[in-house]
Amino acid sequence: MNAAPMFRKVALIGFGLIGGSIARGAKALGLAGEIVTTARSAETRARVRELGIVDGVVESNAEAADGADLVILCIPVGACGDVAQEIAPHLKHGAIVSDVGSVKGAVVKAMAPHLPEDIHFVPAHPVAGTENSGPDSGFAELFINRWCILTPPEGTNAEATEKLAAFWRALGANVEIMTPEHHDLVLAVTSHLPHLIAYTIVSTAEELEGVTQSEVLKFSAGGFRDFTRIAASDPTMWRDVFLTNKDAVLEMLGEFQEDLSKLTRAIRRGDGDALFDHFTRTRAIRRGIVQIGQDEAAPDFGRRHKQLGKAPE
Amino acid sequence: MNAAPMFRKVALIGFGLIGGSIARGAKALGLAGEIVTTARSAETRARVRELGIVDGVVESNAEAADGADLVILCIPVGACGDVAQEIAPHLKHGAIVSDVGSVKGAVVKAMAPHLPEDIHFVPAHPVAGTENSGPDSGFAELFINRWCILTPPEGTNAEATEKLAAFWRALGANVEIMTPEHHDLVLAVTSHLPHLIAYTIVSTAEELEGVTQSEVLKFSAGGFRDFTRIAASDPTMWRDVFLTNKDAVLEMLGEFQEDLSKLTRAIRRGDGDALFDHFTRTRAIRRGIVQIGQDEAAPDFGRRHKQLGKAPE
Fold it and tell me: What's its top-level EC category (chains A, B) (predicted)?
């Protein structure tokens, strides 16, 4: 616990996987004097009250933002503009306003025009998550050793940016700063394209003639199950990502299609050498990711196995 | 430990992830009176001797198969025909010959013509694995609660099939029987297509202009890292899979391309409802896989997280 909290009042607008994880982490570490939250649905607000993690659950975004030193929008990208407009008149002079959206260019465009000049707007994207969503899905350790990307617009107060960076570092994240445009290109390949491909292949497997759904599920350990995890992510969030990062996603999709054509041609022609070379090169990337601690070194993501000779539970 | 082993002598030809896991499991459970193995390279044979798991490491496939009651080829699909020819003259009357290949039609075609009529040929495919390979990568628990598919040709002795099924069940697997053709279609979607897509996207990310390799690695927790695991699988094994299950893979690829075109069109047109509907449907598949115990119920495959407030290791 810190002697003096980093922020007197933190407002979290939205309490899903990310909002709920920030709340749990900030509470555990004493990063805020007070954490106030709200959520769009009465059901979620009721559940957050039951959970008893935050200091206050209020009915409106305006009420949450009122007097807060740090306001973080933890909501789908498509909703950020409206919420910025709604909270703008209630923001405290000198407050930091941030978000956690997976697309940054569109968020900056939607939010910036509404925010008064006397507040500090520092958009953020913690590159972390699980396939779960909702108020119960968050956990304090979610951001540990993950990257949080900040995309402060030109001219943003450096002290405010550093203060938000310190908050994320305290939650366990590494912080990197880049432009919204570069963020959207990088994330198009490391996150948006993989989700799109996963969503596609899962539906392909769902609608096949000649292979039953039961077979798809039973034999999914051959590789398919890995894709189903990210294809179980929050539909609203991902709809908004693809609507708002359209250009970068379509560009990456074009690259992917070219590469897929090359591999398809090698298969059709029976070009074993080309396939072998390709499959050898991709191994190195995995090693790199494990080496920098961005994934499990244990095989199979460290999935657990039961003991031999015991009946399955 | 069983009082009487299921097989007096088991020969494992090849000692990679699958061969090594069978050896470890069978040894732990006492399923074989004696386990003899061999491997193509002298280096692997030396390592298997060092490991001290099996009862004998011999120099040739013929020597391994000699007098064995069960011979399992644990080698890439493309090598099975030649090895069948090599061991055929040395097989014991009434022996069971099997394999563990990920493609069954091509294996049956390549092996069956070489095998004498007095042996029982029961091809098998344990749908289990990790991204690791080599003699050190196996473990006894690999097959627990996974499926092992047997594809006995018409007219195969039912007792021999059941004996091999019992062996796999003892190792923890569930056994299903189907035709080689149906196996190859089912696995094309649950395993081969996912691997092809993963191999593709990993190379796409490797060769981008405008995004550095370091950025791809750092921000891989956004989804990309999930794909790198299966794209780190054994290149020889996967080359052979795509060469020998070409037709079914190309068919599935065609279906995938159609579905990807649909999603791409929805993105291009900004059709949020189509995206949302699609992303909602795919969630159900994940739930089904978790419900039947084919993947972790824990979020994020149960990947571990460090404790908050401690410096990363």
Answer: oxidoreductase
Q: Which of B144, B233, B302 sits opposite A306 (nearest CB)?
A: B144
- Topology of domain B7-178 in CATH is Rossmann fold (3.40.50)
How many CB atoms are located within 10 Å of the residue B249 CB?
26
| Tokens coding A39 | 């959520």
CA of A79: how far to CAs of A63, A69, B311, in Å? 17, 21, 35
Q: What is the ipTM of this complex?
A: 0.94
B267 in A contact zone (CB under 8 Å): yes
Q: Which CATH fold topology does A183-293 show?
A: 6-phosphogluconate dehydrogenase C-terminal fold (1.10.3660)
Which residue in chain A has the smallest CA separation from B263? A200
Name the stretches of chain A with pLDDT < 50: 1-2, 311-313
Alpha-carbon dihedral A282, A286, A292, A294, rounded to 10 degrees: 130
Cβ contacts below 8 Å, chain A against chain B, sum to: 399
Task: Report the b/e string of B64-93 with b at 16+ CB within 10 A.
Answer: bbbebbbbbbbbbbbbbbebbeebbebbbe
Radius of gyration of chain A (CA): 22
Q: What is the mean predicted confidence (pLDDT) over B107-127?
A: 97
HSE-CB of B53 using CA atoms within 13 angstroms: 25
Q: In terms of CA atoms, which chain B residue is nearest residue A235?
A: B279
Which one of A132, A195, A224, A281 makes the best mutation probe of the B interface by having the most chain B beta carbons within 10 Å? A224
- CA–CA distances in Å: residue A163 to residues A3, A59, A150, B227: 17, 28, 12, 35
> pLDDT by residue (tens digit) across A120-162?
999 999 999 999 999 999 999 999 999 999 999 999 999 999 9
DSSP string, A56-122: EE-S-HHHHHTT-SEEEE-S-GGGHHHHHHHHGGGPPTT-EEEE--S-SHHHHHHHGGGS-TTSEE-
* CATH superfamily entry for domain B183-270: 6-phosphogluconate dehydrogenase C-terminal like domain (1.10.3660.10)
Q: How far is CA B14 from the centre of its chain?
A: 14
Query: In chain A, where are the structural domains located?
Result: 7-178, 183-293
Q: Which residues of B touch A244 (CB under 8 A)?
A: none
> Of residues B207 and A225, which shows the higher confidence score?
A225
In chain A, positions 39-68, which contact chain B (CB-CB < 8 Å)?
none
Q: Which chain B residues touch A193 with a CB distance below 8 Å? A: 201, 204
Distance between CA atoms of B125 and B185, rounded to whole angstroms? 14
